[in-house]
Amino acid sequence: MPISRRKMLQSAAAGTFVLAPQVVAGQAPAQITNTQTGRKFKAFLRAGTGTTVEQLTLLPIHAREVVIRTEASAVCYTITGGVLRNNNAPRPQIPNHSGMGVVEAIGPEVRRVRVGDRVIIPGTPQCGVCYMCLQGRADWCQFLGTSPAHPVAKLANGTDVFEEAALGGFSEVMVVTEEYCCPVFTQVPGEELCLLGDTIGTGLAAAHNLAPIEPGTDVVVMGAGPVGMGAIQAARIKGAANVIVVEPIAYRRDIAMKVGATMVLDPNKEGMGLVAKIQDLCKGPTNNRYAGGRTWEAGDRIFAVPNGPDYTIEAVGGDQFEPKAEAGPDPTGILPIQQSFEFTRAGGHITMLGFSTRGNVSFPAWQFQNRGRTFHSGQQGGLHMLRDLPRYVKLIEKGEIDTKAMVTARYPLERTKEAVQAVADRTTLGAVITFPA
Ligand SMILES: [Zn+2]
Ligand SMILES: [Zn+2]
User: Fold this and answer.
1) Which-ligand-closest: CA of 139?
2) Mean pLDDT of the chain
């Protein structure tokens, strides 16, 4: 039977692929010698109806995977429900979705990192070749959460163990595909760098990438949790004249003032007057509309949409648990989104950073049509991790980004559940699991 030229080329290509390992056999492929298969390490697991810290045995890694000795992993509020509730977990899993550490082994096809590199592992990968990466939206990289889908380790009884979000974090060892790795060449402590992989990095990216904040403008940040703190700092760095922060928790308002807020408001104290208060704060120094003033002749307040901030960054999110610190006015997180629309000036920009808030928001149709605002949303604040994280590292080294003030509690792996509880209670700002060197 005649074989077409195309078939011959295909089978030749397949042959090359199969033979490739033999070509480098003399060099002992890293996939076989450099994977640390069988390595013992400890991890915090969500398994069955609870949590536990177990010794695990590392499974072989795939060709594009990387073994990382974890230095630190910051607890994210998003995972509190998954960790602390006692529903039956379908399979043992290492929780969290960010971390940082040192590369200790790589598969034979890994190019982005080398053994010994320090790497930040953010919740958002960047492959550089998928459709969304090519649109300039690496934050929506289609590699997100897809690999490794296989178990990375075994329990002593042979049960497979998986990683949440394809990377985990609450573990002495992380196994990730190279698309998740961002090498950083710095001496900044791991407990600070790990914040760039999730919360603080999200706020920084949102204000740097999504919100086109210009110097001298008015910015409102709704929520001064770790995400909001990143946005506050980025707004300061971009030269905003006013950074008005709305936050119900007193100790968070204090930290916000230290890292870039020019004014803080308590939404519980302001009540339903919050919208008018913020618009009043942003009305500017003159009511002469022939000199840049914001008054509107028609008089009705509904027309007065030139008032209000130029940029609003909404970083509140809903409550998964009743907080032990001061609760905000709306546990669903919908009210702050609604208010953000109402007080932002016509033509202003609103950037939203919540994650999986449930419910609907409604706006007056005529304002949507005729006095609209520009909305921005994205995964992890629109982070382009390979481009942005090294920039943030330089700004930390320069003292422009304050990550020291963001780490407010440190826990060893054994006390991970306590750390997650503190984050769920909102009694600490930045809880980090740290690992001995
Ligand atoms: Zn997160
Ligand atoms: Zn991609």
Assistant:
1) 2
2) 90
CB-CB contact of 274 with 251 (8 Å): no
Percent with pLDDT over 70 in the chain: 89
Compute the average pLDDT of residues 278-301. Answer: 79
Ligand nearest to the CA of 130: 2
Ranked by mean pLDDT, the top range of 87-91, 370-374, 397-401 is 397-401
Domains 30-185+407-434 and 203-378 in one fold: no
Gap from CA of 220 to ligand 2 centroid (Å): 31
Tell me the two tokens of residue 51.
């949590």
Q: Count CA within 13 A, CB hemisphere, residue 43.
A: 33
Question: 191, 407 in Cβ contact below 8 A?
Answer: yes
Contact between 179 and 125 (Cβ < 8 Å): yes
Q: Looking at residue 297, what is its pLDDT?
A: 63
Give the start-to-end residue ranges of the domains of the chain: 30-185+407-434, 203-378
Ligand 1 center from residue 122 Cα (angstroms): 9
How much is the pLDDT for 354?
83
Cα(383) to centroid(ligand 2), Å: 12
In single-letter form, the type of residue at position 70 comes to T
pLDDT at 292: 85
C-alpha 39 to ligand 1 mean position (Å):
28
How many angstroms does the Cα of residue 323 sit away from the middle of ligand 1? 18
How far is 256 from 262, CA to CA, in rounded Å? 9
What is the distance in A from the centroid of ligand 1 to the CA of 7?
48
Q: Which ligand is nearest to the CA of 131?
A: 2
Superfamily of domain 30-185+407-434: Medium-chain alcohol dehydrogenases, catalytic domain (3.90.180.10)
Q: Pick the ligand that lies closest to the CA of residue 73.
A: 1
* Ligand 1 centroid, distance to 355 Cα (angstroms): 9
CA dist., res. 88 & res. 177, Å (int): 28
Is the pLDDT reported for residue 183 higher than 60? yes
Q: Which residues, in sequence order, are bridge partners of residue 245?
A: 221, 264
Which ligand approaches the C-alpha of residue 225 most closely? 1
84 CA from centroid of ligand 1 (Å): 16
Closest ligand by atom to 134 CA: 2
What CATH number is given for 203-378 in this structure? 3.40.50.720
